[in-house]
Amino acid sequence: MSTSPQGVAILGSTGSIGTTALRVLQRHTDRFRVRALTAFSNVALLGEQVALVRPSFVGLVRYGAEPRLEWACGTGCLVEAAQREDVSIVINAVVGAAGLDATLAAVRAGKRVALANKETLVMAGPLVRAACREGGGEIIPVDSEHSAILQCLSGRSATDVRRLILTASGGPFRAWSRERVAGATVAEALQHPTWHMGRKISIDSATLANKALEVIEAHFLFGLSYDRIEVVVHPQSVVHSFVEFVDGSVMAQLGFPSMELPVLYALTHPERVADMGVPPFDPIEMSPLTFERVRLDDFPALRLGIAAGRRAGAAPAVFNAANEQAVALFLEGRIAFGDIPRAIAAALDAHGGVDGSTRDALGDADRVARRFVKELFRC
Ligand code: NAD
Ligand code: MG
Fold first, then answer.
1. Pocket test for ligand 1, best of 201, 204, 205, 370 (most atoms within 8 A of CB)
2. Helix 144-153 with 209-222: angle, nearest 10 deg
3. Domain spans, the chain
């Protein structure tokens, strides 16, 4: 192991993944030192975290009447934290497109990004890959499916792989009729059967937009064409994904549904360190493990997202932005659950072909798609 602890920044430290990451890091203070924390607006929790780990940098994106003078305030704090010299690993646990510039800045500065913020890769996969080449940084996934694939690959490249099979829990509406799903309430959609997560990703899991984001994420992380990435429903969330190799051998990574292992592994990859965060594996307790075909016709967001991934250019960014905007409107009670895929489809039809070749073009595509969705529902 390295002699001095590695500096870590947690972007989005007050969220579900951010607090999980802080808990994991507190068990490994011999290896890691938290140097930077950023949050959106939760001053109280951020204050507690600062008192606990005493970072050298604290950022707050949205501040009220009494900004703390010793904290960096405003949107720029994410990039500032991501580029710091005393930081070598950036845990990006921000939700949504807001995390993109920090990811780009971190990999350009040669850092490892432990990436939970999958929207970053969906929106700008080619730019993020180019920035990694430019600056020598790397992206290591925190998403459990992609962590599973990385672990199964154990250093093998895409040429050794026939197929990736991502598992999906199916979300709270896996067994619901299409009509019932269309009218689901916010409370029903937030009831995820196997994971406790932030509100946006919980809705994405219910629409299966999350799995579409993950297929695109896998495409950019592992360099496989969309023909070689499949999805299977696995309600128990114990098998975190499969890799089928060219010789027909299939590897899977299994474990209790907890984000602690994927967070820790993203920090230590390719090494493993002793940790007691995940309960011991008991195959009897976990059984039976079942698999089902995904209901593509009843959860149209998945098919729309994969089509946007294949279309490339700005289409994945438009898919992501339309989804983020529609989910926000649904959570505010202004549109129905069934309106989310409807909004995505309409936004892709109207704007999926716009330019997506630069950071600015992607920012424009993101704004246009959000505005389009708001106007669609007169919000
Ligand atoms: P969350 O809502 O609990 O936390 C989101 C964090 O982002 C908060 O700390 C908030 O302060 C910050 N944030 C929100 N808007 C921001 C903005 N405009 N600028 C800066 N910071 C902002 O969400 P979460 O469940 O922790 O998910 C975070 C990311 O991780 C998402 O991309 C999600 O898809 C991904 N992810 C989550 C899980 C999970 O189990 N929760 C699993 C896999 C991947
Ligand atoms: Mg996932």
1. 201
2. 30
3. 6-141, 147-255+278-311
Nearest to 269 by CA among 145, 134, 148: 148
Q: Measured in angstroms, how far is the CA atom of residue 20 from the centroid of ligand 2?
A: 15
d(CA 314, CA 1): 42
Task: Establish whether residue 98 lines the binding site of ligand 1, counting it when its CB lies within 6 angstroms of any ligand atom.
Answer: yes
pLDDT at site 293:
98
Which residues of the chain fall short of a pLDDT of 50?
Answer: none
pLDDT of residue 287: 95
Backbone angles phi, psi at 357, to 5 degrees: -85, -15
**What is the architecture, at CATH level 2, of domain 6-141?**
3-Layer(aba) Sandwich (3.40)
How many CB atoms are located within 10 Å of the residue 40 CB? 18
Please state, in angstroms and rounded to a whole number, the distance separating the CA atoms of residues 293 and 342: 23
What is the distance in A from the centroid of ligand 1 to the CA of 238?
22
User: Quick one: which atom of ligand 1 is closest to the CA of 200?
Assistant: 2
